[in-house]
Amino acid sequence: MLTIKNYKKAESLEEAWQLNQQRGSRILGGMLWMKMGKGNVQTAIDLSGLGLADIEETEEEFRIGAMVTLRQLEIHPGLSAYTKGAMKEALRHIVGVQFRNLATAGGSIFGRFGFSDVLTMFLAMDSYVELYQGGLVSMAQFARGGYERDVLVQILVKKRPMLFHYESVRNSQTDFPVLTCCGALDPDEGQYRFAIGARPGRAIIIEDKEHILAGGITEKQAEDFGVYAAGQTPTGSNMRGSAQYRSHLVKVLTARAALELNKGDL
Amino acid sequence: MLVNIILNEKKISADVEPDLLLIDFVREQGCLSVKRGCETSNCGLCTVFLEDRPVLSCSVLAVRADGKRVTTLEGLKEEAEEFGAFIADQGAEQCGFCNPGFVMNALALFRENPDPSEEEIREYLAGNLCRCSGYEGQLRGIQAYLEWKKSNRV
Ligand SMILES: Cc1cc2nc3c(=O)[nH]c(=O)nc-3n(C[C@H](O)[C@H](O)[C@H](O)COP(=O)(O)OP(=O)(O)OC[C@H]3O[C@@H](n4cnc5c(N)ncnc54)[C@H](O)[C@@H]3O)c2cc1C
Ligand code: FES
Ligand code: FES
Fold first, then answer.
1. Considering only Cβ atoms within 10 Å of each terminal Cβ, which end of chain A, N or C, has fewer?
2. Architecture, CATH, for domain A163-263
């Protein structure tokens, strides 16, 4: 069980950061993951009074406050249009609507969970994390770790014109994924990238370094790329699937995503 | 900590521990329809509305509901009975333990989307687990209720 000694609704980011430097302090996101663990929290820091619960869309980017819920991300028309529905596909399998009304973007990214659909989706986009002390950090760099006592303020997504295709495999509805894959294509540069998560390790990016997908894709090219991607993606075993099965899924999901992306307007 | 929570349209002031969960708060206040079915935020049985949005009350600190409106099945009696009759008509349930959370989330669905497709119904209610049934009866009940609502509207 999780016990909490003091609860503090932070009045500024500075205050939240200061409190978070003390041992035994924890920042509260939606608290769903935190609640699964045991432990004694000396001071629980609530960011919900700091105006971080909105998605702001400008010409160039989306600014997503740390306290925005997964459900807000899922139903936001601008994000839906920009990701061609991939954002919704990434999130809709996570437990249930009542859960997604609580789980936050900030907590989901900060946790850098191996199984994360959320991290997979954001890694595929041109996205950044804004930390109170650490400043602006690319999602890929943030995903590698560190920044443990910092405060995640918001997530930025640059609106680079891209196509996305998201797919995950689950043993049963609403369970954790066995593998996640988000393909992204920059149609102007013809560049493909694939974020692959639940390997079961943290999501990583696989790029088409050998230009297998260059110049229009045939089924054969997509398949060849799948084999290449599976070779580049370290996988492991856990109760949801073996490393071998996951590598097979990498092959299938990346090839499928490449073909879908190649069709253009998803 | 002192909190003011508007529970089923009644203002309640109470002194609560920082780690008291909303589910335990509403139960202490007599809303016994709200139950715990798991320890992993997975079952949906504890669903309440927080500012009209369905949430898992087992996963929210009571202090975070300070100044907010919380609605439980007790506060939605008429609506719940009307809808519940259609579920009962189908004999959808066995033990009935999952019912309060299921009804709450179904009502949330109807508010958000008054004319959902079968796919949308399944997706919205995926986080409400039932250990006895195969969900088919519930689905038929929901569809019958929506039909009835539609015919009542004209
Ligand atoms: C039963 C269950 C099933 C799940 N299934 C899936 C799934 O299938 N796919 C998926 O992608 N995810 C899944 N998740 C993870 C979930 O989607 C969230 O990512 C997770 O709960 C974390 O979000 P939260 O808002 O609850 O964060 P919390 O649990 O509140 O916080 C997580 C961590 O981040 C820290 N933190 C939170 N916010 C900040 C901030 N702004 N700055 C600094 N630190 C911060 C906290 O201190 C904590 O250490 C599941 C979680 C649970 C409990
Ligand atoms: S008690 Fe199971 S989700 Fe809340
Ligand atoms: S009827 Fe028994 S859990 Fe649903």
1. N
2. 2-Layer Sandwich (3.30)
The pLDDT of residue B154? 64
- Smallest CA–CA distance, residue B62 to chain A, in Å, is 11
Check residue A182 and give its pLDDT. 98
Quote ipTM for the complex.
Answer: 0.97
Of A155, A113, A149, A156, the residue nearest A27 (C-alpha): A149
Q: Which of A32, A42, A97, A176 to mutate to test the interface with B (most CBs of B within 10 A)?
A: A97
Is CATH 3.30.43 what the domain over A2-46 is classified as, yes or no? yes
Inter-chain touch A5–B18, beta carbons under 8 Å: yes
- Cβ(A28)–Cβ(A65) below 8 Å: no
Same domain for B114 and B147? yes
- Asked if B105 has any chain A CB less than 8 Å from its own CB, the reply is yes
Average pLDDT over residues A230-242: 98
Express each pLDDT in B108-140 by its tens digit.
Answer: 999 999 999 999 999 999 999 999 998 999 999
Q: Does B103 touch chain A (CB under 8 A)?
A: no
B19 contacts A32? CB cut-off 8 A: no
Q: Within a 13 Å sphere around the CA of A38, how many CA atoms are in the beta-carbon half?
A: 0
Answer yes or no: are the C-beta atoms of A97 and A72 closer than 8 Å. Answer: no
> Which ligand is located closest to the Cα atom of residue A4?
1
- Do B64 and B80 fall within a single domain? no
